Amino acid sequence: LTTFFTLISTSTSFVFTTKNLPLATTKKSVLFLPKKTTTKRSSTTTLKHLIKRSALYQYQSSGDTVEGETYDLSLFSPCKINLFLRILRKRPDNFHDLASLFQTVGFGDVLHFKLLPTETQDADGNSHINSEDELLCDMDGVPLDKTNLVLRAVDLIREKTGITDKFFKVNLVKQVPAQAGLGGGSGNAATAMFGVNELLGRPATHEQLVEWSGELGSDITFFLSLGSAYCTGRGEIMTPVSPLPAGTKLIIVKPNIGLSTPAVFKALDYDQLSTVDPESLLQQFLSGVTVSDVPADAYVNDLEQPAFDVLPELRALKDELETVGGFDRVMMSGSGTSIFCMGQPNDLDAFMAKFGKRDDLSVFSTEFINRENGEGVWFEGEGPALK
């Protein structure tokens, strides 16, 4: 119990809409908590503590109360995997053209939003005009200044809508690790765009959010999709596709060591790139068979070669995971270092004994999620427990 803890629970999730009450759904979920945490939470490993940390999040349209402060809106921020990732060419601007099938999964962070009043008073009764945003985060190492995509997203919404006199407090509760290839930061930025737009009274259409998002980064546009999308260009050109089946099970294994995306691209050997047409890969995933039945050679990630060259132990980890009975496909996500495994291990206890107890790994069990189409509707999912 002091090494890892498995919680099986009924999840209550929330689809945010300004016109309806919270919509409750029930799902069976299993969350394997990492033995070590990089957040500021206590490292106590008592049963009570673990239950508190892994309790499934209940979202409310009025927002949640965090550390005694009530927020106006709380939203789940999903992460993603790349079911295939082709690198097509290097561009004159030193970016790369890619083609990839992205999918959101029900493992992610939570963003709490509060619209700040125009004026506040200090303890001495002096009035102060609120003229800047405030960002809080419970994970060490996350920047809290304008280099953070969340604050840049808030700035972008103000700039594009012309509503320049409204400012926000955002509390980012993290569990998605950095340098994982899971798009955690991009998902946070897209969630911030959506949340701020809602609190401002929805001055921008969803189509406008999609259009503007490419100014912030390559993957952010995807998180404004319904959860399944074919992305090209730098990743900002999004083509919606038929949603892949929600509830498809997978396990994500994340080494504690990370790799920066520039370091991976620097080690890319263009002579070793796949030559398969990404459109043909896409059709295999959309052919109507289950994702696990898609042929193994359709699971292509051109960034595995450079990542494995830079970090040989990552290749060794993938090789190990491929020997686990019950996993249909095993591949690195994005630029790494997370490895996702489609399916569930035949012997869960043996799997956790081998991988869950390792000091250098975190293991998460999750599933595909999609969101309903419509204005004011966002993703459901499991976020970190309230403190």
Question: What features would you describe in this structure?
Answer:
The chain has 387 residues and is α+β, with helices and mostly antiparallel strands. The protein is 22% helix and 27% strand. The strands form 5 sheets. Strands 5, 6, 9, 10, 11 and 12 form a 6-stranded mixed β-sheet that branches. A 4-stranded antiparallel β-sheet has the order 14-15-13-16, with helices on one face. It has a two-stranded antiparallel sheet with strand order 1-2. The model is unreliable at 1-61 (pLDDT under 50).
What is the topological layout?
Elements: E1 6-10, E2 28-32, H1 47-54, E3 65-66, E4 69-70, E5 73-90, E6 96-115, E7 119-121, E8 127-129, E9 134-137, H2 149-161, E10 168-173, H3 184-199, H4 206-213, E11 228-233, E12 237-240, E13 249-255, H5 261-266, H6 278-285, H7 304-310, H8 312-321, E14 327-332, E15 339-343, H9 348-356, E16 361-367
Helix pairs in contact: 2-3, 7-8
Q: Mean pLDDT, as a whole number?
A: 84
Percent of residues in β-strands: 25-35%
**Radius of gyration, Cα only, in angstroms?**
21 Å
Q: Ranges with pLDDT <50 over ≥5 residues?
A: 1-61
Secondary-structure-derived class: alpha+beta
Total number of strands: 16
Residues in helix, %: 10-25%
**Termini distance?**
21 Å
> Shape, please?
globular
Secondary structure tally, helices: 9
Q: Sheet bearing the most strands, described? A: 6 strands, mixed
Element pattern in H and E: EEHEEEEEEEHEHHEEEHHHHEEHE
